[in-house]
Specification:
The chain is built from 14 helices and 15 strands. It is of the alpha/beta class. The structure holds pyridoxal-5'-phosphate. Pyridoxal-5'-phosphate (PLP) binds next to helix 5.
């Protein structure tokens, strides 16, 4: 056990028990590494489940927080906020979008997408259209609407009745989507790669096929790039790898270097449906978070991290495929850029624990997929270090 006396007892006593936590108490981070209360150092391949895209405590992120904290932390969105304007401008410049709405989490960003889709359908003369088609295996958040958009019944259990207006289809099955579109359909919503669902990568023609279908039927294409955004998959936004653009997109996680953030981006004709009084978020785009978001985007661009993530992702996946040849119980190594899944023949929880004992943090999903999410600026020798630990741990499985 590597925790300060009493922390675990107090956590179990006072914090709502919504997470099954590992017995590690982390107190410091730098680059790809974190340290616990006992001074143990871990190579972190979880990275706040995709939040710490620039690694821990990037000096420019820390400096941006310090600078803005001394100037202005928060004012209401009743006033104009310079960093928020800069962030909106920067996001529109690097994406398909014309406008940004700011909030505080991925769930909230998706909630905004869902509300906007319904409102847009009404504003454009289709009050009968309110249904959204989502994909089995998806994850969109924990609010009631995003939970319902999440097409995995295990997350629904106990929270019924769920809001109506969601239809589910298998991921990567264009024909099923076509067959499900009906007179009430307003939008199709999906993650370009399902991160939580097991790092599920679509066939190359799936997203272009959905784009075509949306254009033919006058539907909105909503992409949840909460996980896949900001270089994670070797493109600034994952959909760019597939040569298409959505109408609306949800962002969060890595945008503000570890501060809570969410954003919804939309094309002008759709964004118009949010007018004063229709939607809001008290903290959304506040001066602190927005100024850090601006700095994060500059760092990603100035340090060339999108192309670097692609290069390191290919290297990492190549090394993991070597392990696959060695260990027959590795079924598949898949992903794009630095969003990598290693599918095993058995649940990976034991691997998490054994890696942790050897100073490596990885996060396996319930359904036998080891998920690897390094910082975008991970070094080649850190990847080698991780592969060496995995080699040793996988070699010892069953012993
Ligand atoms: C693709 C995707 N969408 C939405 C969410 C929800 O984000 P949040 O937990 O910030 O509400 C997540 C969280 O993991 C996610 O991976």
């Amino acid at each position: 056990m590597s925790c300060q006396e009493g922390w675990i007892e107090d956590a179990n006593r006072y914090i709502a028990q919504t997470y099954a936590r590992l017995p590690i108490c982390l107190i410091k981070g730098e680059g790809s590494y974190v340290w616990d209360t006992e001074g143990h150092k871990y190579l972190d391949l979880v990275m706040g489940i995709g939040v710490n895209g620039l690694g821990h405590c990037h000096p420019r992120v820390v400096a941006a927080i310090r600078e803005q904290a001394g100037k202005l932390l928060h004012v209401s969105n009743l006033y104009h906020i310079e960093p928020q304007i800069q962030l909106a401008k920067a996001l529109c410049r690097i994406s398909f979008a014309d406008r940004a709405f700011f909030c505080n989490s991925g769930g909230e960003a998706n909630e905004a997408c869902i509300k906007l889709a319904r409102k847009y359908a009404k504003d454009s003369g289709h009050p009968e259209r309110y249904e959204i088609i989502t994909m089995e295996g998806s994850f969109h958040g924990r609010t009631l609407a995003t939970l319902t958009a999440t097409a995995q019944t295990k997350y629904h259990k106990g929270f019924e009745p769920l809001p109506e207006g969601f239809k589910y289809v298998p991921f990567n099955d264009l024909k099923a989507v076509e067959a499900t579109v009906g007179s009430k359909t307003a939008a199709i919503m999906l993650e370009p790669i399902q991160a939580l669902g097991g790092v599920n990568v679509p066939a190359d023609d799936f997203l272009p096929g959905l784009r075509r279908l949306c254009d033919e039927k006058g539907l909105l294409l909503i992409l949840d790039e909460v996980f896949t955004g900001f270089g994670r998959t070797g493109a600034m936004f994952c959909h760019q790898r597939y040569g298409i653009e959505p109408d609306v997109m949800a962002l969060a996680k890595a945008l503000a270097g570890g501060l809570p953030v969410g954003a919804m981006l939309a094309k002008e004709k759709v964004a118009q449906s949010f007018s004063p009084g229709t939607h809001a978020a008290t903290f959304g785009g506040n001066p602190l978070v927005a100024s850090v978001g601006v700095e994060v985007l500059k760092i990603i661009q100035e340090e060339g991290l999108v192309a670097y993530a692609e290069e390191m992702g290919n290297y990492f996946m190549g090394r993991l495929k070597d392990l696959q040849r060695k260990f027959g119980f590795i079924k598949e190594v898949r992903g794009k850029g630095l969003l990598i899944g290693v599918e095993l023949e058995f649940p990976g929880k034991e691997i998490d624990v054994r890696c942790q004992e050897k100073g490596l943090l990885v996060n396996s999903l319930g359904d036998k997929v080891l998920r690897i999410i390094p910082a975008l600026n991970v070094k080649r020798e850190e990847i080698d270090q991780a592969v060496a630990v995995l080699d040793e741990v996988l070699g010892g499985m069953g012993k």
